[in-house]
Amino acid sequence: MNQKVQYVRCGGDVDGQGAFVSPTILDNVDNKMRVAQEEIFGPVLCVIPFKDEAQAIEIANDSKYGLGAALWSSNINRVHRVAKRLQAGSVWVNNYNEGDMTVPFGGFKMSGNGRDKSLHAIEKFTETKTTWIRLHP
């Protein structure tokens, strides 16, 4: 990993068998680093500095993945504006990873495999067909 990265918080060793990752915060991460570009399905937070809202959106969208994104803000206008521009299948605001089985779930780009859950998921298993019949030739 690039030597510019600073380990702000490492949770220490995890007891037990298996492959576990301790909660870790990485500061001063460059968005081109592997840890920022690949989906890390574990308790790892990469802190990437940005100058303004536009750059934050650019950094967030600069990935081949787009499963989910999270925003923390009390400005509802900003939330709507940013959420609309994020290339992610789910956007959480002031929370993360909450869900409901009746709401479609899936990612954009190379994340996910269509839309799971809800009636939208049924579309993956159906093919529609139109048949035109003239009854009185």
From TrEMBL:
<dbReference type="InterPro" id="IPR016163">
    <property type="entry name" value="Ald_DH_C"/>
</dbReference>
<keyword id="KW-0560">Oxidoreductase</keyword>
<feature type="domain" description="Aldehyde dehydrogenase">
    <location>
        <begin position="8"/>
        <end position="130"/>
    </location>
</feature>
<protein>
    <submittedName>
        <fullName>Aldehyde dehydrogenase</fullName>
    </submittedName>
</protein>
<dbReference type="GO" id="GO:0016620">
    <property type="term" value="F:oxidoreductase activity, acting on the aldehyde or oxo group of donors, NAD or NADP as acceptor"/>
</dbReference>
<dbReference type="InterPro" id="IPR016162">
    <property type="entry name" value="Ald_DH_N"/>
</dbReference>
<dbReference type="InterPro" id="IPR015590">
    <property type="entry name" value="Aldehyde_DH_dom"/>
</dbReference>
<dbReference type="InterPro" id="IPR016161">
    <property type="entry name" value="Ald_DH/histidinol_DH"/>
</dbReference>
<dbReference type="Pfam" id="PF00171">
    <property type="entry name" value="Aldedh"/>
</dbReference>
